[in-house]
Amino acid sequence: MTGQRKSRDQRSRITITVDGAPLSVPRGEPLATALLCAGYLCLRHSPNAGAPRGALCFMGVCQECSIQVDGRLVQTCLTPTQEGMAVRLKGAP
Q: What is the pTM of this model?
């Protein structure tokens, strides 16, 4: 199941890539929100137990949503979407 936006989003749409696949998202939306609405619930796995991890606090405190974007580790809840972003989730279902 994917998330749904309450109202019709009128912002311009851009294209990012998620593990090489194109994804159309609203410009400037928090990356965590864009990924969640596209059905990406698991963003990474915990290093010790391998448990799935995703956006949790949506305010930058927990760092559970930290992933590689354009070769840098970022918190997706604090990162606005930008044209051409390359998101790496490899291994996340």
A: 0.84
